[in-house]
Write a sequence for this structure.
């Protein structure tokens, strides 16, 4: 059975698609078979990332390691009362399960039925989070006077529900990872406050906090060509600048922190 990695966050602009593409490509480059699904049926940022990659590689005459991205199949009429969204996702995962070592599922930046079902399938859940209290509100409500956590958010409650469903089905618990993205060099006081709040909340509702990607221009430049940090040398960039080298180290640290089964970091 494939190990399912779900990248989920109900707020847009947190770096879900960038995270999905880099994790997927890193796994493929390390020799794993990786399937990929995008559940954002409207924006399809992850899907467009892969399409950009295919188009660029075709133009450049390159053959670089890439995840096996697939569209959700159409729902079959008369599916014995099964929700059509459940049916499409179940069919897509079933088609990939026996062929792949890992399946990466990128969820939309909103609450949908597809996203809810995907979270219940996750062996590993990655929640990218911009490093601010605006995005922290995704996980928990904060008392504005004391800064203390008042209670979990709707998203945290959805993850809790997914965990309960997995427990009832006798499946192993979700390894939930909150990824601190867009960490800046400035605003150290705010960064420390967000970090302390995350560490406190992680003990209360059960997730691991991992540093993600800093704010870098390179990520905006990679998307139109469908490339990742690991592809630069294969596309004629012989000399990486310091920012690119630092970004590659962030990716290496992320892949190590994920603790995925069978993964030996080799880049």
């Amino acid at each position: 059975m494939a190990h399912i990695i779900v990248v989920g966050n109900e707020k847009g602009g947190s770096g879900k698609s960038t995270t999905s593409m880099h994790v997927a490509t890193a796994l493929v480059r390390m020799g794993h078979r990786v399937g990929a699904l995008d559940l954002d049926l409207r924006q399809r940022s992850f899907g467009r990332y892969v399409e950009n990659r295919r188009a660029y590689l075709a133009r450049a005459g390159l053959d670089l390691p890439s995840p096996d991205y697939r569209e959700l199949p159409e729902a079959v009429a008369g599916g014995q009362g099964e929700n059509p969204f459940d049916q499409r996702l179940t069919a897509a995962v079933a088609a990939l399960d026996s062929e792949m070592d890992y399946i990466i599922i990128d969820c939309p930046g909103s609450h949908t039925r597809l996203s809810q079902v995907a979270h219940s399938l996750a062996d590993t859940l990655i929640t990218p989070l911009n490093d601010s209290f605006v995005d922290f509100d995704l996980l928990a409500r904060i008392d504005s006077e004391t800064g203390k956590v008042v209670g979990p958010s709707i998203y945290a409650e959805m993850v809790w529900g997914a965990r309960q469903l997995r427990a009832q089905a006798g499946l192993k618990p979700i390894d939930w990872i909150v990824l601190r993205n867009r960490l800046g060099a400035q605003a150290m006081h705010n960064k420390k406050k967000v970090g302390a709040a995350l560490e406190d909340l992680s003990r209360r509702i059960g997730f691991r906090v991992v540093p993600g990607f800093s704010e870098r221009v390179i990520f905006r430049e990679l998307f139109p060509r469908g490339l990742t940090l690991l592809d630069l040398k294969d596309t004629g960039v012989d000399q990486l600048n310091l920012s690119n080298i630092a970004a590659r180290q962030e990716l290496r640290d992320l892949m190590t922190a994920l603790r995925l089964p069978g993964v030996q970091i080799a880049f």
Summary: Strands lie at 3-7, 34-38, 68-69, 102-106, 124-130, 140-142, 149-152, 175-181, 208-211. The two ends are 26 Å apart (CA to CA).
